[in-house]
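Q: what sequence does this backbone want?
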Protein backbone atom coordinates (compact mmCIF):
# COMPACT_ATOMS: atom_id res chain seq x y z
CA UNK A 1 0.00 0.00 0.00
CA UNK A 2 1.24 3.48 -0.75
CA UNK A 3 1.86 5.74 2.21
CA UNK A 4 2.65 2.85 4.56
CA UNK A 5 6.06 2.57 6.17
CA UNK A 6 7.91 -0.65 5.50
CA UNK A 7 9.35 -0.83 9.01
CA UNK A 8 7.58 -2.97 11.58
CA UNK A 9 8.79 -0.62 14.30
CA UNK A 10 5.95 1.45 15.90
CA UNK A 11 5.85 5.09 14.89
CA UNK A 12 5.67 6.47 18.44
CA UNK A 13 8.90 6.71 20.41
CA UNK A 14 8.84 3.76 22.82
CA UNK A 15 9.48 6.05 25.79
CA UNK A 16 6.02 7.57 25.20
CA UNK A 17 4.20 4.44 24.06
CA UNK A 18 2.70 3.70 27.49
CA UNK A 19 1.02 7.09 27.82
CA UNK A 20 -1.47 7.31 24.94
CA UNK A 21 -4.17 10.01 24.93
CA UNK A 22 -4.54 11.80 28.24
CA UNK A 23 -7.51 10.92 30.41
CA UNK A 24 -8.45 14.61 30.34
CA UNK A 25 -9.01 14.53 26.58
CA UNK A 26 -11.08 11.36 26.87
CA UNK A 27 -13.27 12.68 29.68
CA UNK A 28 -13.71 16.15 28.15
CA UNK A 29 -14.87 14.51 24.91
CA UNK A 30 -17.30 12.40 26.96
CA UNK A 31 -18.63 15.55 28.65
CA UNK A 32 -19.28 17.17 25.27
CA UNK A 33 -20.93 14.08 23.82
CA UNK A 34 -23.29 13.62 26.77
CA UNK A 35 -23.88 17.29 27.64
CA UNK A 36 -22.56 16.63 31.15
CA UNK A 37 -21.11 19.08 33.66
CA UNK A 38 -17.33 18.73 33.29
CA UNK A 39 -15.71 18.57 36.72
CA UNK A 40 -12.83 16.58 35.23
CA UNK A 41 -10.27 18.98 33.81
CA UNK A 42 -8.96 21.65 36.16
CA UNK A 43 -9.72 24.90 34.41
CA UNK A 44 -12.04 27.69 35.61
CA UNK A 45 -15.22 28.50 33.69
CA UNK A 46 -14.81 32.24 34.25
CA UNK A 47 -11.88 34.54 33.45
CA UNK A 48 -9.70 36.18 36.06
CA UNK A 49 -9.53 39.87 37.00
CA UNK A 50 -10.69 42.34 34.37
CA UNK A 51 -7.71 44.64 35.01
CA UNK A 52 -5.32 41.78 34.23
CA UNK A 53 -7.15 40.95 31.00
CA UNK A 54 -7.06 44.64 30.06
CA UNK A 55 -3.31 44.72 30.74
CA UNK A 56 -2.89 41.99 28.08
CA UNK A 57 -5.03 43.95 25.61
CA UNK A 58 -2.98 47.08 26.31
CA UNK A 59 0.28 45.20 25.71
CA UNK A 60 -1.06 43.83 22.40
CA UNK A 61 -2.15 47.28 21.23
CA UNK A 62 1.09 48.92 22.32
CA UNK A 63 3.13 46.32 20.43
CA UNK A 64 4.74 44.90 23.57
CA UNK A 65 5.41 41.18 23.26
CA UNK A 66 4.04 40.75 19.74
CA UNK A 67 7.54 39.79 18.58
CA UNK A 68 9.87 37.36 20.35
CA UNK A 69 10.32 38.38 23.99
CA UNK A 70 13.77 37.89 25.59
CA UNK A 71 14.71 34.25 26.14
CA UNK A 72 14.61 34.38 29.96
CA UNK A 73 11.33 36.33 29.89
CA UNK A 74 10.60 40.06 29.87
CA UNK A 75 12.43 42.02 32.61
CA UNK A 76 9.14 43.33 34.05
CA UNK A 77 7.85 39.82 34.74
CA UNK A 78 11.14 38.50 36.10
CA UNK A 79 11.26 41.49 38.47
CA UNK A 80 7.63 40.85 39.50
CA UNK A 81 8.34 37.16 40.19
CA UNK A 82 11.37 38.09 42.31
CA UNK A 83 9.31 40.67 44.23
CA UNK A 84 6.58 38.07 44.83
CA UNK A 85 9.05 35.53 46.24
CA UNK A 86 10.54 38.18 48.52
CA UNK A 87 7.20 39.58 49.73
CA UNK A 88 5.50 36.21 50.28
CA UNK A 89 8.31 34.01 51.50
CA UNK A 90 11.33 36.18 52.27
CA UNK A 91 13.23 34.53 49.39
CA UNK A 92 15.73 36.91 47.79
CA UNK A 93 15.88 36.08 44.08
CA UNK A 94 17.96 37.87 41.42
CA UNK A 95 15.57 38.62 38.51
CA UNK A 96 18.45 38.56 36.01
CA UNK A 97 20.07 35.22 36.89
CA UNK A 98 17.57 33.31 39.06
CA UNK A 99 14.24 33.63 37.21
CA UNK A 100 13.20 31.95 33.95
CA UNK A 101 9.80 32.48 32.31
CA UNK A 102 8.29 29.39 30.67
CA UNK A 103 5.23 28.33 28.65
CA UNK A 104 3.30 27.45 31.78
CA UNK A 105 4.45 25.17 34.57
CA UNK A 106 4.11 22.23 32.18
CA UNK A 107 7.06 23.42 30.11
CA UNK A 108 8.99 24.32 33.24
CA UNK A 109 8.67 20.72 34.48
CA UNK A 110 9.65 19.32 31.08
CA UNK A 111 12.65 21.63 30.72
CA UNK A 112 13.83 20.95 34.28
CA UNK A 113 13.69 17.18 33.86
CA UNK A 114 15.22 17.21 30.36
CA UNK A 115 18.03 19.43 31.66
CA UNK A 116 18.80 17.65 34.92
CA UNK A 117 18.06 13.96 34.29
CA UNK A 118 20.15 11.54 32.22
CA UNK A 119 19.31 7.97 31.13
CA UNK A 120 19.51 5.68 34.13
CA UNK A 121 18.88 8.40 36.70
CA UNK A 122 16.06 7.70 39.13
CA UNK A 123 13.43 10.34 39.83
CA UNK A 124 11.25 9.96 42.91
CA UNK A 125 7.72 11.34 42.61
CA UNK A 126 4.80 11.08 45.00
CA UNK A 127 1.95 9.11 43.54
CA UNK A 128 -0.73 9.91 42.61
CA UNK A 129 1.20 12.37 40.42
CA UNK A 130 0.16 14.84 37.75
CA UNK A 131 0.30 12.92 34.46
CA UNK A 132 2.96 15.04 32.73
CA UNK A 133 5.54 14.10 35.38
CA UNK A 134 5.77 10.49 34.23
CA UNK A 135 5.93 11.45 30.56
CA UNK A 136 8.68 14.03 31.17
CA UNK A 137 10.78 11.60 33.20
CA UNK A 138 10.38 9.11 30.35
CA UNK A 139 11.37 11.65 27.68
CA UNK A 140 14.49 12.45 29.70
CA UNK A 141 15.36 8.74 29.81
CA UNK A 142 15.02 8.61 33.57
CA UNK A 143 13.38 5.94 35.70
CA UNK A 144 10.45 7.06 37.82
CA UNK A 145 10.24 5.71 41.34
CA UNK A 146 6.82 6.29 42.89
CA UNK A 147 6.34 6.82 46.61
CA UNK A 148 2.65 6.41 47.39
CA UNK A 149 0.65 8.91 49.42
CA UNK A 150 -1.85 6.88 51.45
CA UNK A 151 -5.11 7.95 53.10
CA UNK A 152 -5.00 8.33 56.85
CA UNK A 153 -7.18 10.43 59.17
CA UNK A 154 -9.13 11.98 56.32
CA UNK A 155 -6.22 13.05 54.12
CA UNK A 156 -3.47 11.55 51.98
CA UNK A 157 -0.16 11.41 53.82
CA UNK A 158 3.48 10.83 52.99
CA UNK A 159 5.31 7.96 54.68
CA UNK A 160 8.76 9.42 55.30
CA UNK A 161 10.30 5.99 55.92
CA UNK A 162 9.01 4.83 52.54
CA UNK A 163 10.56 7.93 50.96
CA UNK A 164 13.94 7.31 52.61
CA UNK A 165 13.87 3.66 51.52
CA UNK A 166 13.18 4.68 47.91
CA UNK A 167 16.45 6.64 47.62
CA UNK A 168 19.30 4.67 46.01
CA UNK A 169 22.72 5.51 44.61
CA UNK A 170 20.98 6.15 41.27
CA UNK A 171 18.51 8.71 42.66
CA UNK A 172 19.15 12.07 41.01
CA UNK A 173 16.09 14.10 41.84
CA UNK A 174 12.96 14.40 43.97
CA UNK A 175 9.89 15.72 42.12
CA UNK A 176 7.53 17.26 44.66
CA UNK A 177 4.11 18.86 44.25
CA UNK A 178 2.59 20.82 47.13
CA UNK A 179 -0.23 21.81 47.35
CA UNK A 180 -0.77 18.39 45.80
CA UNK A 181 -2.87 17.57 42.74
CA UNK A 182 -4.95 15.36 42.74
CA UNK A 183 -5.25 14.61 46.48
CA UNK A 184 -5.54 18.18 47.82
CA UNK A 185 -2.86 17.47 50.45
CA UNK A 186 -0.52 20.27 51.55
CA UNK A 187 2.77 18.94 52.91
CA UNK A 188 3.43 20.22 56.42
CA UNK A 189 6.51 22.13 57.51
CA UNK A 190 7.61 19.01 59.42
CA UNK A 191 7.25 16.79 56.34
CA UNK A 192 9.09 19.30 54.15
CA UNK A 193 11.85 19.68 56.74
CA UNK A 194 12.39 15.90 56.68
CA UNK A 195 12.45 15.96 52.85
CA UNK A 196 14.99 18.79 52.94
CA UNK A 197 17.21 16.91 55.38
CA UNK A 198 17.08 13.82 53.16
CA UNK A 199 17.94 15.86 50.05
CA UNK A 200 20.95 17.44 51.77
CA UNK A 201 22.11 14.14 53.28
CA UNK A 202 21.94 12.27 49.95
CA UNK A 203 22.92 15.28 47.79
CA UNK A 204 19.73 15.23 45.70
CA UNK A 205 18.27 17.87 43.44
CA UNK A 206 14.64 18.79 44.00
CA UNK A 207 12.07 20.08 41.52
CA UNK A 208 9.06 21.46 43.32
CA UNK A 209 5.76 22.26 41.59
CA UNK A 210 4.00 24.99 43.58
CA UNK A 211 1.35 26.15 41.07
CA UNK A 212 -1.38 26.03 43.73
CA UNK A 213 0.64 28.11 46.22
CA UNK A 214 -2.21 30.65 46.61
CA UNK A 215 -4.92 28.00 47.04
CA UNK A 216 -4.27 26.82 50.59
CA UNK A 217 -7.25 26.53 52.92
CA UNK A 218 -8.11 26.63 56.61
CA UNK A 219 -5.10 25.92 58.82
CA UNK A 220 -2.78 24.67 56.06
CA UNK A 221 0.36 26.66 55.24
CA UNK A 222 2.34 26.72 52.00
CA UNK A 223 6.06 26.44 52.77
CA UNK A 224 8.33 26.69 49.71
CA UNK A 225 11.02 24.03 50.02
CA UNK A 226 13.66 26.54 48.90
CA UNK A 227 13.19 28.44 52.20
CA UNK A 228 14.46 25.50 54.26
CA UNK A 229 18.13 25.03 55.29
CA UNK A 230 20.39 23.73 52.54
CA UNK A 231 17.66 23.84 49.88
CA UNK A 232 18.12 27.22 48.19
CA UNK A 233 20.99 25.96 46.01
CA UNK A 234 19.49 22.55 45.13
CA UNK A 235 15.79 23.35 44.54
CA UNK A 236 14.12 24.31 41.26
CA UNK A 237 10.88 26.05 42.25
CA UNK A 238 8.08 26.16 39.65
CA UNK A 239 4.88 28.17 39.64
CA UNK A 240 2.55 29.81 37.13
CA UNK A 241 -0.13 32.42 36.55
CA UNK A 242 -2.80 30.06 35.23
CA UNK A 243 -4.09 28.72 38.54
CA UNK A 244 -3.63 31.91 40.58
CA UNK A 245 -5.24 34.35 38.16
CA UNK A 246 -7.63 32.05 36.25
CA UNK A 247 -6.08 32.57 32.82
CA UNK A 248 -4.97 28.99 32.13
CA UNK A 249 -4.85 29.52 28.36
CA UNK A 250 -2.15 32.15 28.59
CA UNK A 251 0.51 29.58 29.57
CA UNK A 252 2.81 31.80 31.62
CA UNK A 253 4.92 29.97 34.18
CA UNK A 254 8.28 30.50 35.82
CA UNK A 255 11.25 28.84 37.42
CA UNK A 256 13.21 30.32 40.31
CA UNK A 257 16.45 28.75 41.45
CA UNK A 258 20.18 29.27 41.86
CA UNK A 259 21.91 30.70 38.76
CA UNK A 260 23.57 27.43 37.68
CA UNK A 261 20.27 25.51 37.90
CA UNK A 262 18.34 28.23 36.03
CA UNK A 263 21.03 28.21 33.32
CA UNK A 264 20.70 24.42 32.98
CA UNK A 265 16.90 24.57 32.71
CA UNK A 266 17.13 27.44 30.23
CA UNK A 267 19.46 25.34 28.05
CA UNK A 268 16.66 22.79 27.59
CA UNK A 269 13.80 25.31 27.49
CA UNK A 270 15.31 27.28 24.58
CA UNK A 271 14.86 24.22 22.34
CA UNK A 272 11.29 23.55 23.43
CA UNK A 273 9.21 26.70 22.89
CA UNK A 274 12.21 29.08 22.73
CA UNK A 275 9.84 31.81 24.01
CA UNK A 276 6.07 32.13 24.45
CA UNK A 277 3.14 34.26 25.55
CA UNK A 278 4.75 37.66 24.87
CA UNK A 279 1.91 40.12 25.60
CA UNK A 280 0.61 37.95 28.42
CA UNK A 281 3.92 38.24 30.24
CA UNK A 282 3.32 41.98 30.66
CA UNK A 283 -0.17 41.31 32.03
CA UNK A 284 1.08 38.70 34.50
CA UNK A 285 3.75 41.13 35.74
CA UNK A 286 0.89 43.47 36.70
CA UNK A 287 -1.15 40.60 38.16
CA UNK A 288 1.62 39.56 40.55
CA UNK A 289 1.60 43.09 41.97
CA UNK A 290 -2.12 42.96 42.85
CA UNK A 291 -2.84 43.75 46.52
CA UNK A 292 -3.16 41.02 49.12
CA UNK A 293 -6.93 41.56 49.05
CA UNK A 294 -7.08 39.92 45.59
CA UNK A 295 -5.32 36.75 46.77
CA UNK A 296 -7.44 36.59 49.94
CA UNK A 297 -10.72 37.01 48.02
CA UNK A 298 -9.63 34.42 45.44
CA UNK A 299 -8.87 31.89 48.17
CA UNK A 300 -12.12 32.61 50.03
CA UNK A 301 -14.15 32.17 46.84
CA UNK A 302 -12.50 28.81 46.09
CA UNK A 303 -12.98 27.68 49.69
CA UNK A 304 -16.71 28.41 49.45
CA UNK A 305 -16.89 26.47 46.17
CA UNK A 306 -14.99 23.56 47.73
CA UNK A 307 -17.55 23.39 50.50
CA UNK A 308 -20.53 23.42 48.10
CA UNK A 309 -19.16 20.47 46.12
CA UNK A 310 -17.84 18.59 49.17
CA UNK A 311 -21.27 18.76 50.83
CA UNK A 312 -22.99 17.52 47.66
CA UNK A 313 -20.55 14.62 47.29
CA UNK A 314 -20.95 13.63 50.94
CA UNK A 315 -24.76 13.79 50.65
CA UNK A 316 -24.60 11.56 47.56
CA UNK A 317 -22.72 8.93 49.58
CA UNK A 318 -19.09 9.45 48.53
CA UNK A 319 -16.35 9.37 51.15
CA UNK A 320 -14.77 12.82 50.79
CA UNK A 321 -11.13 13.56 51.67
CA UNK A 322 -10.31 16.95 53.17
CA UNK A 323 -8.86 19.29 50.57
CA UNK A 324 -6.25 21.53 52.20
CA UNK A 325 -5.11 23.04 48.90
CA UNK A 326 -5.59 23.07 45.07
CA UNK A 327 -9.04 23.10 43.46
CA UNK A 328 -9.66 19.39 43.49
CA UNK A 329 -11.55 17.03 45.77
CA UNK A 330 -10.61 13.36 45.91
CA UNK A 331 -13.37 10.92 46.85
CA UNK A 332 -13.59 7.23 47.65
CA UNK A 333 -16.37 5.44 45.72
CA UNK A 334 -16.43 2.28 47.83
CA UNK A 335 -19.30 3.51 50.06
CA UNK A 336 -21.36 3.61 46.84
CA UNK A 337 -20.65 -0.08 46.29
CA UNK A 338 -18.09 0.70 43.57
CA UNK A 339 -14.39 -0.05 43.42
CA UNK A 340 -13.24 0.60 39.82
CA UNK A 341 -12.69 4.32 39.27
CA UNK A 342 -12.25 3.93 35.50
CA UNK A 343 -15.55 2.12 35.02
CA UNK A 344 -17.26 4.50 37.43
CA UNK A 345 -16.06 7.64 35.60
CA UNK A 346 -16.92 6.25 32.17
CA UNK A 347 -20.46 5.50 33.36
CA UNK A 348 -20.95 8.65 35.44
CA UNK A 349 -22.01 10.99 32.57
CA UNK A 350 -24.94 8.73 31.61
CA UNK A 351 -25.74 7.99 35.22
CA UNK A 352 -25.56 11.49 36.70
CA UNK A 353 -24.68 14.00 33.96
CA UNK A 354 -21.33 14.77 35.60
CA UNK A 355 -17.75 14.07 34.48
CA UNK A 356 -14.87 13.30 36.89
CA UNK A 357 -11.37 11.79 36.61
CA UNK A 358 -10.29 8.37 37.94
CA UNK A 359 -7.27 8.88 40.18
CA UNK A 360 -5.78 5.56 39.09
CA UNK A 361 -4.38 7.28 35.96
CA UNK A 362 -2.03 9.15 38.29
CA UNK A 363 -0.56 5.95 39.79
CA UNK A 364 2.02 3.39 38.75
CA UNK A 365 0.41 1.11 41.32
CA UNK A 366 -3.00 1.30 39.66
CA UNK A 367 -4.65 -0.86 42.31
CA UNK A 368 -3.64 1.68 45.01
CA UNK A 369 -5.65 4.37 43.22
CA UNK A 370 -8.51 2.21 41.93
CA UNK A 371 -11.34 3.38 44.24
CA UNK A 372 -10.51 7.10 44.13
CA UNK A 373 -12.13 9.71 41.87
CA UNK A 374 -11.24 13.40 41.50
CA UNK A 375 -13.65 16.31 41.02
CA UNK A 376 -12.65 19.91 40.18
CA UNK A 377 -14.44 22.76 41.98
CA UNK A 378 -12.99 25.73 40.03
CA UNK A 379 -16.39 26.36 38.42
CA UNK A 380 -19.22 28.83 38.97
CA UNK A 381 -21.11 28.19 42.22
CA UNK A 382 -24.39 27.53 40.38
CA UNK A 383 -22.65 24.91 38.21
CA UNK A 384 -21.30 23.18 41.34
CA UNK A 385 -24.72 23.30 43.01
CA UNK A 386 -26.27 21.76 39.88
CA UNK A 387 -23.60 19.02 39.79
CA UNK A 388 -24.10 18.32 43.50
CA UNK A 389 -27.86 17.98 42.97
CA UNK A 390 -27.36 15.64 39.99
CA UNK A 391 -25.05 13.44 42.06
CA UNK A 392 -27.49 13.36 44.98
CA UNK A 393 -30.32 12.30 42.69
CA UNK A 394 -28.23 9.64 40.97
CA UNK A 395 -26.94 7.97 44.14
CA UNK A 396 -29.64 8.46 46.78
CA UNK A 397 -32.90 6.65 46.16
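A:
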Amino acid sequence: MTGMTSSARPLLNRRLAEFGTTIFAEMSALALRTGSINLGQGFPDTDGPEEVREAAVRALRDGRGNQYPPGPGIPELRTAVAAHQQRRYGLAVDPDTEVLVTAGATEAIAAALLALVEPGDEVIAFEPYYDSYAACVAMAGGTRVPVTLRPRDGRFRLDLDELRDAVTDRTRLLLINTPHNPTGTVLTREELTAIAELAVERDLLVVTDEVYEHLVFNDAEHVPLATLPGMRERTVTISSAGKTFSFTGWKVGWVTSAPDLVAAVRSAKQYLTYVASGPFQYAVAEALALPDSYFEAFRADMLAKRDVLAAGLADAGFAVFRTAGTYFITTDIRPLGESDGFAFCRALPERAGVVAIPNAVFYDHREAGAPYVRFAFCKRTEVLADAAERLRKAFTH
